[in-house]
Design goal:
Elements (H helix, E strand, L loop, with lengths): L1 H4 L13 E7 L6 H15 L3 E7 L6 H11 L3 E6 L5 H11 L4 E4 L11 H9 L4 E6 L7 H17 L8 E8 H8 L8 H8 L3 E6 L13 H15 L2 H31 L6 H34 L6 E5 L8
Parallel strand pairs: 1-2, 1-4, 2-3, 5-7
Antiparallel strand pairs: 3-8, 4-6, 5-6
Helix pairs in contact: 6-9, 10-11
The chain binds uridine-5'-diphosphate and magnesium ion.
Magnesium ion binds next to loops.
């Protein structure tokens, strides 16, 4: 810390601050006790004041009653329960709203990420990093299909948006209070956290870790959910798809013109061509397809505008335990 003191303004040296560990929870009853134990052990090692904030994202198992029981025994544990399942991104947004402390560390509940990395994350933060993220060393716990699709997604995302995502970074990360406050100023309803982290900027440091299999339970990200998530991410960070449809339209119109000229010349030279049926059907199908795709793309964005202008709250809190009760949600 002293080494950095000369190059950083005093406010950047957080050495007395409290840490908040934020965990989104959806049907994780089999993991909560071990998670709590390992988090506590890791946090006590740092010698800092801390709180553990568990956001129950509408679990249908007994996660919430386990959280209440753990909170009754541990004053450092706070729980927040949504009125229904709002999704992991929103659970994180709610956690960032409620988190106290000078840094917030986010980690999944399934122990695919090691809580034991937390002291190292805090050490990197003490040296001045605004963001410290865990960089997963392998993805062997994902199926081969998901692996390939994920890789392609990052490629496409990088190509059509101005925002560069770090492919090996997930939601296991430490955010300085300033980053948290910056994120809280982004009011959008369609949350794509990875893009938001990149958008707010700030310096970041990567810490590699072994990404292991879930401790208990199974991943809640089916193919469709991931696909929707990817679409949300791209449409939230780029209007290129809207422009692509314009380009496609221009290109096809041009081709149609070339084709028309060809037919006029051909008719003049060799007379009318009666068996033109296949080419007619093919072109009708092709153009209708393109039109539907363009309508769909425009619709995606209109839907997003609709969701934003409705201006509904991001989440509804149903219940809370531990800590001081904030004002009504
Ligand atoms: N999660 C959540 N809401 C959901 C789905 C998941 O809060 O609707 C939580 C889940 O409990 C876990 C984290 O998000 O703590 C990551 O979920 P998961 O392990 O299913 O994702 P994966 O590791 O497969 O990407
Ligand atoms: Mg997981």
């Amino acid at each position: 810390v002293t080494q950095n003191a000369s190059i950083l303004p005093p406010a950047t040296i957080p050495n007395t601050g409290m840490i908040c560990v934020l965990v989104p929870i959806h049907n994780e009853s089999g993991n909560l006790a071990v998670l709590h134990q390992r988090l506590t052990a890791a946090l006590q090692k740092t010698g800092r004041d801390y709180e553990i904030l568990l956001v129950d994202d509408g679990s249908r198992d007994d996660s919430w009653s386990i959280i209440k029981r753990l909170a009754a025994a541990d004053p450092r544990l706070r729980g927040l329960s949504f009125s229904r399942n709002f999704g992991k991104e929103i659970a994180i947004a709610a956690g960032l709203d409620m988190a106290r402390g000078d840094a917030v560390i986010m980690i999944d509940a399934d122990l695919q990420q090691p809580p034991e990395l937390i002291p190292d994350m805090i050490a990197a933060w003490e040296k001045g990093a605004m963001t410290v993220y865990g960089e997963r060393i392998d993805r062997h716990s994902d199926g081969p299909v998901r692996k390939v699709v994920t890789q392609q997604f990052y490629k496409i995302f990088g190509a059509i948006t101005d925002t560069n995502l770090e492919p090996k970074a997930g939601d296991f990360r430490l955010l300085d209070r300033r980053v948290v406050d910056a994120l809280r100023r982004l009011p959008e309803k369609a949350r794509f956290n990875k893009g938001l982290y990149a958008w707010v900027g700030f310096s970041s440091v990567a810490l590699p870790y072994d990404h292991v299999d879930r401790h208990a339970g199974h991943s809640q990200w089916g193919f469709m959910k991931l696909f929707r998530f990817a679409l949300d991410g791209i449409t939230a960070f780029s209007t290129t798809p809207l422009r692509l449809s314009t380009y496609a339209g221009l290109f096809i119109s041009f081709m149609a013109l070339v084709y028309a000229i060809y037919f006029i010349i051909r008719t003049l030279l060799v007379g009318p061509d009666i068996p033109g049926y296949p080419s007619l059907i093919v072109s009708i199908m092709f153009f209708s397809g393109i039109q539907l795709i363009c309508l769909g793309v425009a619709g995606e964005y209109i839907g997003r505008i609709y969701n934003e202008v409705k201006n509904r709250p991001l989440y509804i809190i149903g219940d809370q335990v531990g800590g001081t009760k904030p004002d009504a949600s």
